[in-house]
């Protein structure tokens, strides 16, 4: 797969995301929403950063199982039950992202959600990747 991250100078600087991603490949992997569930189906982590770390790790585990890598992510949507808390932890969440997924940022959005499927979940990530 090849990707081109597009960040036009006419838009605000992209920090922790790309404004657009042009992906060329032959397989698209749609990734279901992942929360901070452990292998027993229990939400782990009391804070948004801990839950974000587990949810991202779960998303990347599903991606790797489908034959992909973090750089193959073209789009990720983050659903947060408290967008203000997400913004307050943005720097820490960015460090977690870079440690687990690197610096190839997909097109991203953060969406506020009243609640998620698992009542204890503070954050959920879904997305899609394009593989060669």
Explained architecture:
- The chain is of the alpha+beta class and 132 residues long.
- The chain is 27% helix and 31% strand.
- It has three helices and six strands; from the N terminus they run E-E-E-H-E-H-H-E-E.
- It has helices spanning 48-65, 83-88, 90-101; strands at 2-6, 20-24, 27-34, 73-80, 107-112, 123-131.
- The strands form two sheets. Strands 3-6-4-5 form a four-stranded mixed sheet. Strands 1-2 form a two-stranded antiparallel ribbon.
- The N and C termini lie close together (4 Å).
- The mean pLDDT is 95.
Give the arrangement of secondary structure elements.
Layout: E1 2-6, E2 20-24, E3 27-34, H1 48-65, E4 73-80, H2 83-88, H3 90-101, E5 107-112, E6 123-131
Parallel strand pairs: 4-5
Antiparallel strand pairs: 1-2, 3-6, 4-6
Overview in brief:
This protein is an alpha+beta fold and 132 residues long.
What share of the residues does DSSP label as strand, in percent? 25-35%
How many alpha or pi helices? 3
Mean pLDDT: 95
Structural class: alpha+beta
Radius of gyration: 14 Å
User: Would you identify the regions where 5 or more consecutive residues have pLDDT less than 50?
Assistant: none
Main sheet summary: 4 strands, mixed
Beginning-to-end CA distance, first to last residue? 4 Å
- Helical proportion, percent range: 25-40%
The total strand number stands at: 6
Strand order of the largest sheet: 3-6-4-5
SSE series? EEEHEHHEE
Shape: globular
């Amino acid at each position: 797969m090849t990707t081109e991250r597009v960040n036009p100078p006419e838009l605000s600087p992209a920090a922790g995301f790309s404004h657009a991603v042009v992906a060329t490949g032959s397989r698209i992997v749609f990734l279901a929403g992942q929360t901070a569930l452990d292998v027993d189906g229990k939400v782990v982590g009391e804070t948004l950063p801990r839950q974000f770390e587990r949810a991202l790790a779960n998303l990347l585990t599903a991606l790797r199982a489908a034959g992909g890598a973090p750089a193959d992510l073209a789009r990720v949507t983050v659903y947060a039950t408290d967008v203000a808390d997400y913004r307050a932890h943005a720097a820490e969440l960015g460090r977690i992202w870079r440690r687990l997924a690197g610096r190839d940022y997909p097109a991203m959005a953060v969406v506020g959600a009243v609640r998620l499927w698992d009542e204890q979940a503070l954050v959920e990530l879904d997305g899609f990747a394009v593989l060669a």
